[in-house]
Amino acid sequence: MRIYLIGYMGCGKSTIGRKIAELLGISFVDLDKYIEERYFKSVPAIFAEEGEERFREKERLSLLEVSQFEDVVVSTGGGAPCFFDNMEVMNNSGTTVYIAPDTDVLAARLLKSKTERPLIISKSREELISFINDALLKRAPFYEKAKIIIRGENNLDPQLVIDKINQLNVNK
Asked: What is the pTM of this model?
């Protein structure tokens, strides 16, 4: 079993992913942390030193590696589904779940973690909401390819995600 959690930064992929993995008794992999451990460099450092294109190549290679893992929940970076054929890789090797809370929820969460997220550090709430909406518009064609889409949930229940995955697998 492979479950891939996708969605915009701040949607809760890592938090809910850990809980789902714990409930199912399987492993959890945060793809960004996997990249950092594999390349001995933080994601912001890779971006700064090597550029986004090189980061996306490393992200792609890392995704291909974790797509071979058995019994795992993978939390991807927000942009991962939008490059190369990453969505196809994930859809072909497991169940993709797009977590899509409301923009206001994303903005509130991101405002609390601005110092950790260089892309948004200087933005006001209004600028952040506009930034999120623009990004979601561009990413929607990729995110919407997920097998399961969960919209508008503020505090997502991990059991709800598991139930939707089980329902999808039963209906195949």
From this structure: 0.93
